[in-house]
Fold this sequence. Notes:
Blueprint: H1 2-9, H2 20-38, H3 40-60, H4 67-88, H5 100-106, E1 120-124, E2 132-136, H6 138-144, E3 150-153, E4 156-163, E5 180-184, E6 191-192, E7 212-217, E8 220-225, H7 231-239, E9 241-248, E10 251-252, E11 255-256, E12 259-264, E13 269-288, E14 299-301, E15 328-345, H8 353-370, E16 378-385, E17 388-396, H9 405-410, H10 414-425, E18 428-429, H11 431-437, E19 444-445, H12 476-487, E20 489-492, H13 500-511, E21 522-524, E22 527-529, E23 531-533, E24 538-541, H14 547-556, E25 559-562, H15 573-579
Helix pairs in contact: 3-4, 8-10, 8-12, 10-12
Amino acid sequence: MLGQILASVGDQLPVWMGAPDDYVAEVATQAPVAFDRAFDRWRELYNSARSQLIEANARSQITGLSGADRQKIKAAQIQAMDQIGILEQGKATNGSDFYSYRYLATEGFLPGYNFPRLPLYAFVPGEGKSGSFLQRARFLAISEFGPRSLIYHEGRAYRVMKAKLPPETRTSDGQELATQEITICPNCGAVHTEQSDRCHACDAHMAEELPVRRTLRIDNVEAAPAERITANDEERVRQGFDIQTVFAWPRKHGRVEVTEAEFQTEAAPILSLQYANSAEISRINKGLKRRRDKTVLGFMIDPRTGYWTKTEDEEADVDLPPDAIRPVRIVPIVRDRKNALLLRFHAPESLEPETIATVQHALMRGIEVVFQLEEGEVLGEPLPQRDRRRAILAYEATEGGAGVLSRLVEDPEALNKVARTALGLMHFDRVDEAIAAGDPGLLEDREDEACVRGCYRCLLSYYNQPDHEMIDRASGEVKKLLIDLARGSVVLSRPPKRDGAEQGWEDSFAQAGLPAPDPTGVAMADTTLAFAWRSHFVAAATQEISAAAQATAESKGWTLFRLPASPGAGLPANMLALLKE
């Protein structure tokens, strides 16, 4: 099979494959590990159900319980048995999500199946019958299956009451959760899990940014029937959650794996483009949109059981007794890997937010038409936040990716075609004349088109409903920007080449088994160090390092090394130890 594929593409091998023989050997070697890892989700669900059953059985032995408490315990036992039954009896005949082939396809182990990859599961108890597992794509489930949200299924309403917490997320005493702290770049929306002075995507300063504390990945939830739904519940669902999308570029041997380019016109550069395969895209549920204090993020959860507790905005219960497990606040997060393209405007402060929003959706529509994609195969997100637009993150939402975003970077004319097509979709005539002259005033509204600011035949769609009020195809600024995008060209950026001596040191680093240094060095006080490993906070130089540079590095947590006169003299032992950790 692989031989036939390689014969059809000739010498144009995919960039991720490398040598075909090595690729085949790696896949065969890693197959047992991937097969075992694919069942981690099933084990997590099964262990959670078993723990719930064991806990309910233990509580049922307590004497003196009230009738209401015993009913709750009985319901928990039945629910746990239902979950175990569904997980143990997945068959092809009943359409179960846990039929072996279907399950392995959703977990990404089996290719070529049209099932959602790595969905988020919600268990919904049945009425007079066994319950069922609902599944949603992760980016949708972060809000649809959010804490205490409502789910409508088979004519009934259910409330998401519980997050299934794997054992490894709990501390030994059961009173805390193993959460993660992240920092988000205020310029481009890139996320960092380690301390960093500069953003790995746009090189913006981040030293003074406050981190988002106590994030926790949520994979599976549990719902309970909602007997009564108040007007407040419906209003809460209508307003929804405050969701933020962030990203991180992939790394290999400590270096960011990204293709960079600039989009330039005769006057000035307009956009910086960065593309990466398998970028990590995350969505954070920061809380209710209507919450009182916008600086307080997340939701309260019982760290022992995983039950979401009421927040202050929902008239929280009275204080718990001293011997009770105290709820902790976490920020739910989901992650997935997608092919992604970041478009950063050079002067976003000079553009109206409505302009950036309209151009974003115009480009998404243009990409769909030029590359013959279905609606929703490529989606866009404003970054760093919806109310502070400075960049656009486009990602391939379909399974395996559509394979088109890389062409916007590699093909100098691809973005021109997208922008020209977008102008045509926006009900304008004389598009070619306007582009040739660089004059948006030449664009004319097409006759008999009943569209003012936007419609579902041009820019509006189901996927951009939150931005409908911002979209304005008639904006002069929008027309000018799209015409510039149709006239300019993409120029690939090349990392600066090192001179002969520096290249010799890079060869020495590789021979010693060290990760490759970053493309650019780092400055410390009055000294510029040619080699930097920002992920390790290590830098090195061949010249003398001043005391001021050493003091600056120490205050920032960096370690500096003076290299010998020539690469043949060897590397400092401490440097080898730090970079091989």
